[in-house]
Amino acid sequence: MTSYLEKARRSPQVSRRGFVKASAAATAALAVAGLAGCSNKVEPVEDSAADGVQQASLTEGTWIPAACWHNCGGRCLNKVLVKDGVVVRQKTDDTHEDSVEFPQIRACLRGRSQQQHVFGADRIKYPLKRKHWEPGGGQKELRGIDEWERISWDEAIGYVADELKKVYETYGPTGVLIAGYGTGQNVRLISYLGGAVAEWDSASHGTYLLNVGSLGLPHMGVGPGAVMCTSANDRFDLKNSETIVLYGCNPAWASAGNRCKNFLEAKEAGTEFVYVGPSYNPSASLLEARWIRVRPGTDVSFLLAVAYTMVTQDDPQSNPLVDWDFIEKYTVGFTADTMPEEASLDENLHDYLLGAYDGVPKTPEWASPICGTPVEDIEWFAQLVGKEHKVALLHSFAAARNKGAEDFPQMLMTIGALGGHMGKSGHACGSAFGPTAGDGGPSLVMPGQAGLTPIPNTLGYFVAGPDTWNAVLTGRFFDTGHNMMGSEQGFPPPVEREVDIHLICHDDSGAALQSRMNIPGGIEAHRKVDFVFTQAYTMTTNAKYADIILPACTQWEKKASYFQMIYPGRDFEVFPSKVVDPLYESKSDYDIIVAIAERMGIDPKAIFDFDETQQWFNVIVGSTVMKEDGTGYEPLVTVTQDDIDEWGVQGQPQEGRIGIKELLDKGIYQVERHEGDPYTFIAYKSFVDDPAANPLPSHSGKFEIYCQWKGDWLAASPRGDTPFKPYPTYQVPIEGYETTFDDWDNQVKGDYPYLFFTPHYLRRAHTTLDNVPWLREAFENPVFISAQDAKEKGVVTGDTVLVQSRYGKVLRIASVTETLMPGVLALPHGSWVDIDQETGCDKGGADNVLCGPVTSNSGVSGYNNYNINFEKYDAEQLLPDVEWPQRIVDAE
Ligand SMILES: Nc1nc2c(c(=O)[nH]1)N[C@H]1C(S)=C(S)[C@@H](COP(=O)(O)OP(=O)(O)OC[C@H]3O[C@@H](n4cnc5c(=O)[nH]c(N)nc54)[C@H](O)[C@@H]3O)O[C@H]1N2
Ligand SMILES: Nc1nc2c(c(=O)[nH]1)N[C@H]1C(S)=C(S)[C@@H](COP(=O)(O)OP(=O)(O)OC[C@H]3O[C@@H](n4cnc5c(=O)[nH]c(N)nc54)[C@H](O)[C@@H]3O)O[C@H]1N2
Ligand code: SF4
Ligand SMILES: [Mo]
């Protein structure tokens, strides 16, 4: 196998120089002229013909569609050229000409650097055991800093099987934590064994995970079968808006590939852009948006003042701002006249705005000191979103990922309703999250399901992400059920649970010790238990703090890539193929789990009814495509008996649009769109056309500006005691802007006088790909500081700074910018933690070292409004992390 790798490294891959050059060009083009390389010509995408490599050798071989399976908001087409079993080149979508109707699904630079991920020198090559681990835990305090020993698969599987057996026999399922979102495959084994304490986390959606169906909003989720982002119109409608408000969205980073093109097309057609948030981010810059500054976590105060202004300045003749017909017909609870029957409180938002209950009118002058938005900007925004303007209010979930943001979804919906911006072309108030990037509507191509029999986790103990590590450390947590989006059944009465966790099994699709808040507590929790095991490709943080690491192969090495079928874009679905055999001694997750089951004396069929090939086949043949008249779905793939025989699987021949071989050769199926075609989607149109026949999912069937369920549920929460009401109100968050002050009334700042947020970063998909040297070189990993704050602290770009919160401290190199509100710093999400044992300081700059285990009533992971302080750090100058040694384990 080593010789394979040597061969691969000698091969004319994308050169480092070529890659970095391409990334610099792409970034520049993004900022100046639009997305890089969006010409209409089909040209083979020459990632690099640089460094004198002969063209001929770059075109021989077979192009294979290769998975890009990360949780990044994209699913782009990547292809690799395989010659003599070695990947020699990579390219992206050149299956057809690029056009507005039929855009190429082009990869970003992360996708194009994938070969360094798969063939990296830092792959875990064989099973590893922590040197000072022994049954019972050994020297537990050495987790994360111990040496590694190479062991055989037989030993590794034996240790895992024995420890699982012992812990289940001694402590039962409450002795086990399955850390992660529960989407991995080893969850099936754990569930079979009796289940385990499992996590849920509001992660992506923030407070939009709070049963927004009760407000009248659709399910905001993603994934197979989910109706994706149906709260906003489809991409052809973007240009019908006079103005698009990007509310805390950053598609240029977070909807990578070339999805930002949707917005550029609208801009070219004359639509104006406004950006609302704490940073003038690359999307705002690309779209030349007007910047409305709002401090992280203070959006409800801003929007209350917008609503106040709309109501108080509304004049049906001279300045019609509020669409009273819309309010009356399609909403409940804005005024005393429109209260829902079930209302238990004789209060409404309209009168709250005017100060009827607390004596405080929610004027722009009231809001401005909280949200930091100039009064004239609040007033301007209120005019902009008035009923006479064609406005699309498009949000991601960043503003909802805050402590105390429970009322944000309802408040933004209220602004949309006041302006009457739902159900009409050119108007919208909904999500433009991740892959949607302004292309709302049900998916046109849907992947099938693997078809495995579900194995429920019968223990039924669910811990919220912010509480996870404390549950391990204290043995107690509040269980409020698995907060299922859009389902009231997902919120049973809270129960306080007692657990005694002795084993942590990392879900094989998550990076829990990095992505969950409170990494310092997570490390302590890992050092408390008897046994930690994980599957991993590289020395991730989960792996670093484990006792046994089982080397998993990547999706390029798997027979089947069905696990990557999440986040489908609207028009297409990608179907990758296996590229090479598993590298070194790595195995697929499926094979690993089967081996553990067998060692435990369990028939693997009890865990997986059938093998990976059958699962992948089921996904492919179960895929559906929207019928050409837009009335439901039909099978996508034609399957013959010959195909079934060739695959060696169970199945039935069927008629679809494309043969299975042709589909897999292409690697993608995409629906060509045309203006006005039957796939045209205007969110809420059927409801607005006939509300009685097409009610919303709320109790009243309308948008609930007063929602009794919401008020009751938040009031019953054992997690926070913030007095949220059924209608949106401004509440001081448990940690947020106000807590940067020691004395708010006299505006005296405290020990942590700055706010910080954690943007999803272009260099990586959360933590994934953060180890890739090309990406480290192309995108540095600084802490962004506003010019004014930096000046006050005597910090310049390139200085090493110490950033501290109440929960932890990190070092980073400063990048000083004019694009942040003063008082707000930005630390990119997902950097690999690297604790300095002497100082306890994280040199890696991991966001969740600073984000502590704090949550508000809904249990939200409120990443974006923590308090920090920072200072120039003179004890040490950090090197750019591209110059750090890779985490290569050589335990031969
Ligand atoms: N502070 C802060 N924290 C955040 C956020 C934030 O904004 N700020 N964002 C949150 C959000 S929105 C999200 S979605 C989460 C993401 O949190 P995670 O999903 O935990 O993060 P990823 O880095 O995507 O982790 C995926 C891991 O699974 C591995 N993996 C992927 N596929 C496979 C596979 O098939 N087999 C095996 N064995 N391993 C696999 C990858 O290598 C990687 O280590 O982070 C959350 N955490
Ligand atoms: N490159 C890359 N792309 C990704 C990911 C990744 O890790 N890397 N992760 C994917 C996933 S799982 C997710 S959930 C999405 C996340 O996608 P987003 O939620 O859109 O991403 P963020 O970068 O967290 O936030 C976007 C912008 O919101 C603004 N913002 C932050 N806090 C607030 C606030 O309190 N109020 C307001 N008004 N604005 C605020 C900031 O200016 C920031 O630039 O990205 C997806 N795409
Ligand atoms: S956006 Fe995501 S799926 Fe697309 S190429 Fe980049 S990393 Fe891969
Ligand atoms: Mo996410």
What structural keywords apply?
alpha/beta, Rossmann fold, Dimethylsulfoxide Reductase, domain 2, Barwin-like endoglucanases, six-stranded mixed sheet, disordered N terminus, binds ligand MGD, binds iron/sulfur cluster, binds molybdenum atom, signal, MoPterin_dinucl-bd_dom, molybdopterin cofactor binding
- Report, as a whole number of angstroms, the end-to-end distance: 15 Å
Structural class: alpha/beta
Spatial arrangement of strands, main beta sheet: 5-4-20-19-18-6-7-15
CATH class of the domain at 128-203 and 454-566 and 574-608: Alpha Beta
User: What is the CATH T-level topology of the domain at 128-203 and 454-566 and 574-608?
Assistant: Rossmann fold
* Major beta-sheet overview: 8 strands, mixed
Secondary structure: helix percent: 25-40%
Cα radius of gyration in angstroms: 27 Å
Uncertain spans? 1-5, 7-54
What is the CATH architecture annotation of the domain at 128-203 and 454-566 and 574-608?
3-Layer(aba) Sandwich
Shape: globular
Annotation, overall tally of beta strands: 35
User: Which hetero compounds are present in the coordinates?
Assistant: ligand MGD, iron/sulfur cluster, molybdenum atom
